[in-house]
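hiii so my PI (J.) wants the whole complex modelled not just the main chain, which honestly fair. so below is everything: two entries, each one labled with what it is. i double checked the lines twice but i was tired so who knows lol
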Amino acid sequence: MQPGHFPANILFVLIFLAANGFFLFTVYKLYRIMRLGEPEDRFDRTWERLKGVATFVLGQRRVVNEPAGWGHFFIFWGFVIITIGSIETFGVGIYHGFAYWKFLGKGVTSVLYLLQDLLCFAVVVALFVALYRRFVIKPDRLLYDDQRAANLDASVIIGLILFLVLLLLGARAVEYLLGQNEATRYFPKWAFISVALADLFKGLSEEALHGWYSFFWWSHTLIILVFLVYIPFSKHLHILGAIPNVFFRRFSSIGELAKMDLEDESAETFGVSKIEEFTWKQLLDLYACTECGRCSENCPATLTGKPLSPKLTIHHLREHLQKKGKALLAQHGREEAEALNPEGELGRALVGEICQHDELWSCTTCGNCMEHCPVFIEHIHKYVDMRRYLVLMESSFPAEVQNVMRNWETNSNPWGLGFASRGDWAKGLPVKTLAEDSQVEYLFYVGCAGSFDERAKKISGAMVKLLNEAGVSFAILGAEEKCCGETARRLGNEYLFQTMAAELVETINSYGVQKIVTTCPHGYNCLKNEYPQFGVSWEVYHHSEFLAKLQRDGRLQTKLAMDKHLVFHDSCYLGRYNSIYDQPRTLLRSISGLRFSEMDRSRNKSFCCGAGGGRMWMEETLGDRKINEARTEQALALEPDIIGVSCPFCTTMFEDGIKDRNMEEEVKVYDIAELLAQTINSEKK
Amino acid sequence: MNVVVLLKQVPDTETKIRISGDGKSIDTSDIKWIMNPYDEYAVEAALRLQGSAGAKVTILSMGPERVVESIRTALAMGADQGVLVDDPGTEGSDALGKAQVLAAALRSLEFDLVFCGHRAVDDDENQVGIMVAELLGIPHLGLAVSVEIEDGKVKIQRPIEGARVTLEGVLPALVTFGGAHAVWNPRYASLPGIMKAKKKPLETKTIADLGLAPEDVGVQAAKVKVTAMELPAERQAGRKLEGETADKAKELVRLLHEEAKVI
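here's the output for the full assembly
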């Protein structure tokens, strides 16, 4: 059955069409399943999207952030180059005389063949590294609830690629030998690996060589087609899902949750309780995942033994989507389908079965999963969408959260302290309220912690001292200030959030202030990235960037030295959410004598303190240990005198962690504002 | 089965209370009003009967228009309808006056059970519920921490010192509720609940509608009057004694004796 000769070419074309037809049919079905999702507009900024594909797909920018990613880099490029070669291979299958060099010239073909040889070699090495990782090193991030199925899937894929590549090299080697005798053939000598392998077949008869060539060609080609058919059923579906997923990635801050339309009288349900209630992009996320596990490897919940692993969430969601989607498509209409299949996948609850309640409530929304996902999967927004369903429809949430929600409702702060005492922290401090003087440049939005929490009040005081020192024209809202609603929103209580947001917008707008500075990264993110949903366009600064700017302008100088060793902890909502990493460090480095250390997990790998996403207000009873304990331990390992923070919630979590270890005498936790205030030695208070 | 819940709107417990100029009442400006927590337990208990026995739950309250917000909260939790007696003439009523208004309103409603908190957390009078039962001539079962309906009778449990007593009463009856938030865990309104609450019937009545004469209620009819109100003394900041232990002990004794005058 020499390839490209009658009747082998007819047979090949039939197999080729069958495999491709089946593949396209499967992919079309996946597409239709994805389209069951709700609409979402991700069609803007095409050029930037294309650039994203260049960087993150072709350049594998996020993949190679990890050493293991380099293996993928070579497999990916091997795949691309071999696929270019496959077109020639398929051409040969139709007509034996088909060859690239006849179209592209011998020079280009030589380069292509050389590249193919090199990448085939790199792929083989990378595959063995992959096998070694999976079966010998067994890193945590490759763990599954069904390890056997996952290993089998991975082995099938690795095996197929390995044989595909080896058989290609075999075919090339024989082609080289045949090319030397047949004038109609040309084989570039640059493909030195193929040429070297040809030694294995030297001395064989022409007939035997043709036999070997047929064997290699057919087996290589068939494996490609098997691979093609297998892909959509495996986690290697990411080959198809990742590219569009990178293209359609989110440009807005990960800190911006979608605004729900709560006025919609026709809405029967709120939040997501069925897989098809996610948007099509959220469903595309599921196709894009190849379960590399970087999300879970960086997840504070996973790492402290909570019943949450972002990788497994995505894995379970995809399995559910594929089964349920198929069932939905098979029936005439959704309602009928559910009536017909109550026991099967259609009858399985998304919230409570596919995703467990504890899983959803374990997320701190720290964003480490999204930050490290090479294909831009958006985990947090899915968790919040499902929380929204639980809170808005079922009134179901951890019991301790109910009190907090009531506290927000009655007193606009999570502690439930009287709203009228909100401005009491500033008694006796040189600070005006907007009611006293609205002609100021900046509003210092203090936030709930800064107003009510005894510890955080000191940060507010330090901030006042610094703003006065720098001669900033500012005021606070005092008792008029309201909670920004950030945490309520992350807990899924969009109704409460929107109510609070409307009140705060009205209060601030009544004074016409346009510039806001705040010491709380959560309020900062919310006011900056989410409040534009309510028609405002304030300039919002976190105090770290604001103080850094004052310092740059020469308005704030540190005078006193501080002979201490400091470890700085990045707040998630400042760092990953808003890319503020350098400003707090610049401020701290301006303090002379202060020695500065970084944890392994710092900057965009920073490990959450455990308070985000409303976790501050929940008991932490699950898992092997508390998140703040784990983080405090990471910081204490560097033996600091001071843990520097930039968030009132991080302050609480670290102080609790330190108290648990009875080290509050040796190690202090300070906000950057407090450290600066200690070193400016101002006469002004 | 019809359950009517008597609901009072009270200042939030965290409110900074200020005495108004007359020295007999509180300044009601700048107050966040909430549903009396014990009445909220009563609402929760009624809604459980709604779920288990299909009871129809009516919220009955008296007071100015702001009270509508608390009634809507109960409706959002799941109550079926609301009635508010909104009449300036009722202002200054004592407990008996209030009970008369509520009893008159109840006579215009169908009920098998009347639920309410055993007291309101604002003036802590512990009277209105019991008086309403008396005026209506129905049994009163007080301080319930559980309630069920069995064979046309109401059965409640009340904690007593170190034990629990079970009471049974014939219908119609009035039950007042005790316990704590953790006992009742009143439900949190869902969003559809909040949206539906906006459309649920809420009737406003005057004392004339109830057939009461103006002289029957309000400050002129009150047999008990508030004569003065004062705030507790402001708490002083704590003091930390420094020095040797023996000196500190001596100083402590001196302070307790001379300043605090407790020993």
